[in-house]
Design a protein that fits this description.
globular, 5 helices, mainly alpha
Length: 131
């Protein structure tokens, strides 16, 4: 019985430590391969498109890493991120077919909507707990 309690306590300790280790970290952006693999399945990229999209996503990932490590204020960082997204979109538009680009933008809008909903729920839950 003591062993079961010890294992339960050990498991809970590991879970708490894992949760606190990631608590203060910023949101992680997927790497270029993960983004490109996802786009390949959703957009049916050809092999040629895959390599071009991978290079675009690698540049985007590098740009976003620079934004995260920049010591500038939030407004400047937001502007850098916006420019990185716009650059990525412009480059993707050159590589993707019109239908693929529409599907990409549609998926991007759905993800943005989900993020906005998540932020609103989070804001509502934190404002309700403050006094």
């Amino acid at each position: 019985m003591k062993v079961v309690h010890f294992l339960t306590a050990a498991f809970l300790s590991v879970m708490v430590l894992a949760g606190t280790a990631s608590f203060g970290q910023e949101r992680h952006h997927p790497d270029a391969k993960t983004m490109t693999d996802s786009m390949k399945s959703k957009l049916s990229l050809s092999d040629d498109q895959y390599s071009k999209v991978y290079n675009i996503n690698q540049q985007f990932s590098d740009d976003m890493s620079k934004v995260k490590t920049d010591n500038g204020d939030k407004t400047a960082k937001r502007e850098q991120a916006r420019k990185a997204y716009e650059q990525r979109d412009a480059e993707l538009k050159k590589v993707l077919t019109d239908d693929q680009y529409k599907m990409y933008k549609n998926h991007e809008m759905k993800m943005k909507k989900r993020m906005d909903e998540h932020r609103q729920k989070k804001a509502a839950s934190t404002s309700g707990t403050e006094k």
